[in-house]
Amino acid sequence: xxxxxxxxxxxxxxxxxxxxxxxxxxxxxxxxxxxxxxxxxxxxxxxxxxxxxxxxxxxxxxxxxxxxxxxxxxxxxxxxxxxxxxxxxxxxxxxxxxxxxxxxxxxxxxxxxxxxxxxxxxxxxxxxxxxxxxxxxxxxxxxxxxxxxxxxxxxxxxxxxxxxxxxxxxxxxxxxxxxxxxxxxxxxxxxxxxxxxxxxxxxxxxxxxxxxxxxxxxxxxxxxxxxxxxxxxxxxxxxxxxxxxxxxxxxxxxxxxxxxxxxxxxxxxxxxxxxxxxxxxxxxxxxxxxxxxxxxxxxxxxxxxxxxxxxxxxxxxxxxxxxxxxxxxxxxxxxxxxxxxxxxxxxxxxxx
Length: 352
Hints:
- By secondary structure, the chain is of the alpha+beta class.
- The chain has three domains: 17-169, no CATH class; 179-219, Roll (SH3 type barrels), CATH 2.30.30; 225-307, Alpha-Beta Plaits (2-Layer Sandwich), CATH 3.30.70.
- Helix content is 53%, strand content 14%.
- α4 packs antiparallel against α5.
């Protein structure tokens, strides 16, 4: 049997169309923002003294253009701080995520660390920019006790999200890549952030849930899942023959089931339906393969039953009449024709 080699997707190819557009748009915004900043600061040097974007000083008021000119150094320093810390933060996030790619646990921890780096970078940018504009950052930090109290009262939800996020990571409730059911929403953990968890469903839709709002979690990836196949046979079929047929072909059918961990096991008659006996067959597999495994089992056992002439139940139309005194009367063609003829005559007679 020839070995099939699958080409590993690059990080760009793995992105969805929405994610690609978001990345391109962010690059465009960065370029436009930097270009606009250079135009404002260095317009006169580029286009000469005739260039005046905001106007000159008049009537004793300092025009916006002159204010920009007087504070050009502050703008340049602020821009360098934002770009430098922003790029450093992004590079560190990429490095951390690359290190944690080897396992789901590593992905989870790296996702949280990347989120922390992002928030630390934002705070560092704010403090450094304030310092560049002459703000006494030391005094500001010393007064953070009162500010923290005020923010604590107003940002209780944010703090709850952060604490819940740390609890999720260190309690190992779930990891990035696990399939979970969170409050009746089933999907794969795409990202665990400091304040929120992102879940991707089978259609590729991503739902963001605040960490503090997660009340119940069922981690379907912790243990092997059970793929279930329910298939009906006719009441006239020999049940012992069908059961032996299922057991004899279990090891062969396993080869056609995606992600099967063991051979399918016949567990018995699950119900006695109106039209036939429902047989139940189960097989262990990973949660990500469960639905495909069930489809494969349905196909395999349907083909097995067709090949061995196992009678299937089918929808039936039952006509009842007072003229039928015994079920065998309906099976007698001549008797059945007579019943239909009598019914037709009774219908044609006008009611008195």
